[in-house]
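Let us work through a complete example step by step.
Step 1: write down the sequence.
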Amino acid sequence: MASSTSDVDELFDLRNAFYTGNFQQCIKEAQKLSPSDPDACVERDLFLYRSYLAQKKFGVVRDEIGPGSNRTLLPVRTLANYLQSPSSRESIVSELEQEMSGSVDPSNSSLLLAAATIFVHEGNLVFVYFYKNEKMWEIQMCVNINYLKDLIFFPSPGSCPSRPAPIRPPRVHRSQDPDPPQDGSRRSG
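Step 2: predict the structure and record it as tokens.
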């Protein structure tokens, strides 16, 4: 049983490198890949620019994705702008909230992913609960992966802007009594 060429996933190595966190390899694969399908070209570019974002190369994304680029790539540029310039985050969030409150194309997963990432950075998880569609599980998974990546690369609490230092209750020290009461009552003294 011979498989046809339409069954071959041209982006397999690219996806594999991205999802395993090998962003430099993903960039190399994307630069040498020339998919035959125009949709695959856009998807290749999405993985390429998301890999640049993961490497904190925000300027590359902003320079290469212009206002006239494919509408699927524009949210990645918005995310790069958000991550690069903290001074303009408030205006980016308000524009994004305005865009998300209108009619949103549920097939534009890059917009949903960028919006979810920005809203998680802002601590606004309401987005995930109010905007439901068939791609939301994928978006939630990607955001969770990014959050876990922050935990790995920023292990100390408060060292990552998307993960503020947790508020922990004060530690209660137990007495060093070698013979605690067996009946569950407390000893006085």
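Step 3: interpret the result. The mean pLDDT is 75.
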